Amino acid sequence: MGASVQRHDGHIAIAGTLTEDDDLIPLAGGLTGKVTIDLSGLRRINSAGVRMWMLFVRAVPPSVELTLEKCSVPFVNQMNLVRDFVGGARVTSVYVPYLCTKCSKSPVRLASLGEAMPEAGKCDCGGALEMDADEQHYLAFQR
Fold first, then answer.
1. Nearest partner of 39 among 53, 58, 55, 27, judged by Cα
2. pTM recorded for the entire structure
3. What pLDDT was estimated at residue 140?
4. How far apart are CA 96 and CA 100, in angstroms?
């Protein structure tokens, strides 16, 4: 099953798994003005889904101000692997993976770009959380 896309005014939420079944080009053609895409619910992107996303980004009219927010860890991983993955879109926030040193849970914390990384804090079990990625590499897409 592919991704679910919900649209309300200038806000779009994409969740689930982005696959070859997700033709987003018709969505791109209907965009105008300022549009924000919430990617917090995107759990997986397969290789064909990467292609579908790239076709979508290329189809967004140049007059559209596209903002990507709450980018999930799988989406950030693709931004770091695929050149021009977000095209001309502006990324405002990403989820950062953490790992509990006690119970091995993997919570995520939302980070606004341009600000300090969120405090790791403590896990529900009381264990210490550590960032489960090298910060420089995880945020390499910004360069």
1. 53
2. 0.93
3. 94
4. 13
